[in-house]
Amino acid sequence: MIIGEAGAAAQALWGDVFDTPGRVYGGGKGGQFKMDPEELSTVIGQWEDLVDKIFDDGQKIRELAALSTVAPGKDPVSGGFASTSSDSITALLTQNDSMRKYAQDYIKKLKEAQSKTVVTDQDLSDTFKA
C-alpha cells in the first residue's frame, strides 16, 4: 500500500517493494543473524568497501580542516566564520573517525564469526568422515 505523492513517486521509480520482498537476514534467537559462509564473505567485503569510503572521506575532511583556519578577510566577522567553520569541520572529523572505528570493529566481529563457522563446519565434516 503506497500513500501520497512521495509514495507514488517511489513506486514509479522502484516498483511496489511490498510485492517482491527481498531476503531478510536474521531469525536466530537472541538477536543473532544467520548467513551461509558465502553470504558472510560478501557482507564482509561490503563493509570493507564502506571502510575504504569512510577513510577517503576522512582524508578530504582533514584537507578541509587545514583550510578552515584561514579567515576569508581580516574583519571580526570573517574571523568568526573561520572559527565556526573550523568547529564544524572538527565535529565532522570526529564523527567520521567514530564511524570508521565502528565499521572496523564490526568487520572484526564478522571475521571472528566467519572463523568460528569454518571451524565448526570442519569439525562437523570430520565427524562424518570418521
Please, could you describe this protein's structure?
This protein is mainly α. The longest helix is centred in the C-terminal third of the chain and has 54 residues, at 76-129. The chain has helices at residues 4-14, 37-67, 76-129. The protein is flat and about 80 Å long. It has 3 helices and no strands.
Layout: helices, strands, pairs:
Elements: H1 4-14, H2 37-67, H3 76-129
Helix pairs in contact: 2-3
Termini Cα gap: 55 Å
What is the share of helical residues? over 70%
User: Which blocks of ≥5 consecutive residues have pLDDT under 50?
Assistant: none
> Which class do the helix and strand fractions yield?
mainly alpha
The total beta strand count reads 0
Please provide the ordered H/E string of secondary-structure elements. HHH
Tell me the strand percentage band.
under 5%
Describe the biggest sheet? none
Shape: flat
The number of helical elements comes to 3
Radius of gyration: 24 Å
Let me know the average pLDDT.
78
Structure described in brief:
With 130 residues, this protein is an all-alpha fold.
List keywords for this structure.
130 residues, mainly alpha, flat
